[in-house]
């Protein structure tokens, strides 16, 4: 009996030792199957485009296919929840945004995911400023004149939004300018832009790369870059701080995240692959071909700090705007 018990204990100990070895083998063989990047916004969105550009290059580097899945809805929460609940093995990633990872926690009472706990930062991909635009024929003057006219008439400015960034910016604009603002939410920017072009909505806050070509060809009118300085892509378009001194919003961004608990070795391998991809001239050209998009890599630790800082800043702005969590 003692011999049997001793042998059983030895087998159990061997099994315990073998588990880390198996895990280490899986990590060293990573990736052994296709990797999925979840874009929480529709096809044609910036998140979708960036996912496909970096995914294709990372796939070549890692020797596996990288597939993009679109799971839009609830300001990006649908896709975020999906990734947060995925197995933390490096095969399901999130193309996160400042909306998903820094703003949503202050907008929703029951978010069903916790950005600071549920994700492991891999690396920032790009920064993207936002722009306030108007449908053709709506605004005859600049932003200051448009706001003055709305105040004089006591009119409500209907602003379409397709991201959490835009939703908060619209509320802050109304408060800072002293005008009534009605937020008209859409499940992604392409849907709202279609209605803006069709005249169903008057104003919209868009990521600059989405709006750029429509501004340039006169289909919509750019009123202001939502930042404290002008954008190089549209140097003649004033920043919003020129009409409303002191008003700006943090620059938007997209970044890759893995589910929390993903082995550090896999996170670092993905971060190195992403960094290498963003150094390639063809990748930079594809990303920056969307005017206003700026390649901006941050390693995991730096991205963690950026998310924490932006989360605090957006929380303060949301409170100041009087936005109640839904």
From TrEMBL:
<dbReference type="InterPro" id="IPR042100">
    <property type="entry name" value="Bug_dom1"/>
</dbReference>
<feature type="signal peptide">
    <location>
        <begin position="1"/>
        <end position="23"/>
    </location>
</feature>
<dbReference type="InterPro" id="IPR005064">
    <property type="entry name" value="BUG"/>
</dbReference>
<comment type="similarity">
    <text>Belongs to the UPF0065 (bug) family.</text>
</comment>
<dbReference type="Pfam" id="PF03401">
    <property type="entry name" value="TctC"/>
</dbReference>
<keyword id="KW-0732">Signal</keyword>
<protein>
    <recommendedName>
        <fullName>ABC transporter substrate-binding protein</fullName>
    </recommendedName>
</protein>
């Amino acid at each position: 009996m003692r011999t049997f018990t001793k042998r059983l204990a030895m087998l159990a100990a061997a099994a315990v030792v073998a588990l880390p070895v198996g895990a280490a083998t899986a990590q060293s063989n990573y990736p052994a199957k296709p990797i999925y990047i979840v874009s929480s916004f529709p096809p044609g969105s910036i998140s979708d485009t960036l996912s496909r550009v970096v995914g294709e290059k990372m796939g070549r580097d890692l020797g596996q296919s990288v597939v993009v899945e679109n799971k839009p809805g609830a300001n990006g929460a649908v896709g975020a929840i999906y990734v947060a609940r995925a197995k933390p093995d490096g095969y399901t990633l999130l193309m996160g945004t400042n909306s998903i990872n820094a703003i949503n926690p202050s907008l929703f009472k029951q978010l069903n995911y916790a950005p600071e706990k549920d994700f492991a930062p891999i690396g920032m991909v790009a920064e993207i400023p936002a722009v306030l635009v108007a449908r053709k024929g709506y605004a005859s003057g600049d932003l200051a004149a448009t706001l003055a006219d709305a105040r004089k008439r006591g009119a409500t400015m209907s602003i379409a939004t397709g991201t959490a960034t835009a939703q908060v910016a619209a509320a802050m604009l109304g408060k800072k300018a002293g005008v009534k603002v009605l937020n008209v939410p859409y499940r992604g920017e392409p849907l709202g832009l279609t209605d803006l072009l069709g005249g169903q909505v008057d104003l919209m806050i868009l990521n600059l790369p989405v709006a750029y070509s429509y501004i340039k060809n006169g289909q919509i009118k750019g009123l202001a870059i939502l930042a404290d300085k002008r954008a190089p892509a549209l140097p003649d378009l004033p920043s919003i701080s020129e009409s409303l001194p002191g008003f700006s919003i943090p620059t938007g961004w997209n970044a890759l995240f893995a589910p929390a608990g993903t082995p550090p070795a896999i996170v670092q391998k993905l971060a190195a692959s992403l960094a290498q991809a963003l150094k390639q001239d063809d990748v930079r050209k594809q990303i920056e071909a969307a005017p206003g998009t700026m390649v901006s890599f941050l390693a995991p630790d730096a991205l963690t700090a950026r998310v924490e800082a932006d989360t605090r800043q957006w929380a303060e702005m949301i409170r100041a705007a009087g936005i109640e969590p839904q």
